[in-house]
Amino acid sequence: MKGLETTQGRPLVLLVDDQPTNLHILSSALKSDYELCFATSGETALKLAHALQPPQLILLDVMMPGMDGIEVLRHLRGDERTRDIPVVLVSADTSEQTQLDGLDLGADDYLTKPVLTSVLQARVRNLLLRKLGESQLRLAAHVFEHSGEAIILCDNDNRIMEVNPAFTRMTGYTQDEVRGQDPKLLSAGRTEAGLYQGMWAAIRQNGFWQGEMWDRHKNGSVYPKLLTISVVRNRLGGVDYYIGSFASLTEQKEAEDRIRHLAHHDPLTGLPNRLHLQGTLQRDLALSRRENRPLGLMFIDLDRFKTINDTLGHHVGDELLMEVSRRLRNCVRESDIVARLGGDEFVVLLSGAGATAAAQVAEKIITLVAQPYEMYGHTLRTSPSIGISLFPEDGADADTLMRNADLAMYQAKSRGRNNAQFFSQGVNQAARERLRLENDLHLALERGQLQLYYQPLVDTLSTEVVVVEALLRWHHPELGMVPPDQFIPLAEEIGLILPLGSWVLHQACQQLRHWRDAGHATVRVAVNLSLHQLRQESFAHHIVEILHGYRLHGRDIELELTESMAMQNPEETIRVLHLLRAQAIDLALDDFGTGYSSLNHLKLLPIQRLKLDRSFVRDIETDPHDTAICSATVALAHAMGLRVVAEGVETPAQHAFLQSLGCDVMQGYLFARPQPADVLDLGRRYAGEGSYALSTTIPL
């Protein structure tokens, strides 16, 4: 029946009578509009009332054997599961007292037999409609009381009649405080008059409006809300009520602000990101054109950051980036922009700044960023390489200025790092040459342009060759011999140092195998390591695999690492070095005296040899400081049971002086220059009972 259908279909009506004839009469009157079920006893009726799908109405005969209708009604009303089911008593008893007794027990209606079909149908329909209305009212009341949205009921004069608890929580006003008031008392005064006009026009035309407004809490705070207004009309089409519901948009707006902030800012440092920078740069350029004023752009890259990050972990690297960001902000004006592009790259945008102002800011940045950083028990050092481009002389658009500042930054790195360079056409040419070198280096390995040269190391007393160091050379088909100090740092920057180092290891071991097969049974090979190799997972295992591939053992090689490498995460370095020593591999510390290592760390390194850097040997005869350093180093090494190698020996006087200090081994042009393996004559250089070692190195 229209208006009574539920989600399960037609309403279910239970007919209870001990006489089948009576059940048939009731069924004939109702079956076209309702689903019916039947019971011929009170006991059966109660079971059906407690079924999984209980009836929505019960027609209950009063006079039945056993449990009569009155007793059934008493049970139904005494059980919370069935107390709300509408019950119509049906009986031939027409006495007023019987009807009153039934109604007092909770019957919803009373029909006397015989029942007219039309009366039965009308009573059942009206009762079900009434119960449906009551149910909907209960639901509406529940929603009103427990809704998370604020609900406000206004009369046709738009005066507040009633509000729900959510309204009080959201606005701070109780029902007594707002009853009879105009809802405008909530307004924060931020909503334009035109919006109100449009709102009322929509309500009059459509009976509905939804939109955003700003309200003021009772405590004075302002918040955004999403308001929905609906009209309740009477039968004549007039307005009876306005129902408004609204929810605070504060959290949504805050979330939108956070998303917008994240879209334009770096999540680690909170600085503007590339997207933010591009928009700001475009606006500043437009302003600079209109007002004919300059603009400066700095591209900043942190020196040695990758080494710190790879060695000490990303948590240390992240903390360092955050501190650098703070220092950069302290170097510029409030109106300037400091942005992080990613990794260790930053950009500073200086509005209205020419060359002089940009140079002053760059000097402040260099001074402040290069100061030590104390974090996680480490003293860290980094420095900025800065490239500067200026508007309008270095570019008229954002892309050109960014590109030229980037090129100038690479020029700063090539000039020793920790400095600032302005863009020039010379920088542009140098950048093109660097890019070409980078591309060619990728092809150098596969095209066979790399080669190892060898330089002997000589025992100070016997002049016997004890080590032969292999130096990496690049024969470029057009540029000729490319110096290692140009392509080795480049290989580290572009990620080629690991394959390059692996190639050197294989070539050195292959050459050693060739010399062994030629009868030089005592020759050993020493390989200089890069920090990236030392940080490789299972590096010791990797070296042993290479050795076994050429039928060699750990005792056949010697590995060299620089002092600065040893100081990068010294605990991890010492752990890896002990793994290498466990394979009988000898270890040497190269360039000693040029880094910042402490004696405490030095004594923990499982090394067998110290290499005295050439910078101390060069002026050893004339500079008393170099003399003192060399003398102290030799004494220290011998006291620790280590042998000392002096690099860069070029004159007989240097040789004699180092010999007088007790230096064990020397290397330099005084003895021999680096030369290809096929030129090196191991047999001719052999004298007495000495042994030879071949040292392969990536850096000079």
Architecture overview:
- Residues 209-261 form the PAC domain.
- The chain starts with 11 loop residues before the first strand and ends with a strand.
- The model is unreliable at 686-700 (pLDDT under 50).
- The longest helix is centred in the first third of the chain and has 30 residues, at 117-146.
- With 700 residues, it is an alpha/beta fold.
- The chain folds into four domains: 12-145, Response regulator (Rossmann fold), CATH 3.40.50.2300; 147-253, 2-Layer Sandwich (Beta-Lactamase); 265-423, Alpha-Beta Plaits (2-Layer Sandwich), CATH 3.30.70; 450-609 and 673-697, EAL domain (TIM Barrel, Alpha-Beta Barrel).
Q: How is this fold's topology laid out?
A:
Layout: E1 12-16, H1 20-30, E2 35-39, H2 42-49, E3 57-61, H3 69-78, E4 87-91, H4 96-104, E5 109-112, H5 117-146, E6 150-155, E7 160-163, H6 165-171, H7 175-178, H8 193-206, E8 208-216, E9 222-233, E10 239-248, H9 250-264, H10 274-291, E11 295-303, H11 305-312, H12 314-330, E12 337-342, E13 345-351, H13 355-369, E14 373-375, E15 378-380, E16 383-391, H14 398-414, E17 420-422, H15 425-444, E18 450-459, E19 465-476, E20 480-482, H16 484-493, H17 497-517, E21 524-528, H18 531-534, H19 539-549, E22 557-562, H20 563-567, H21 570-581, E23 586-592, H22 599-604, E24 609-612, H23 614-617, H24 624-639, E25 643-646, H25 652-661, E26 665-667, E27 675-676, H26 682-685, E28 693-697
Parallel strand pairs: 1-2, 1-3, 3-4, 4-5, 16-17, 19-28, 21-22, 21-28, 22-23, 23-24, 24-25, 25-26
Antiparallel strand pairs: 6-7, 6-10, 8-9, 9-10, 11-13, 11-16, 12-13, 14-15, 18-19, 18-26, 18-27, 19-20
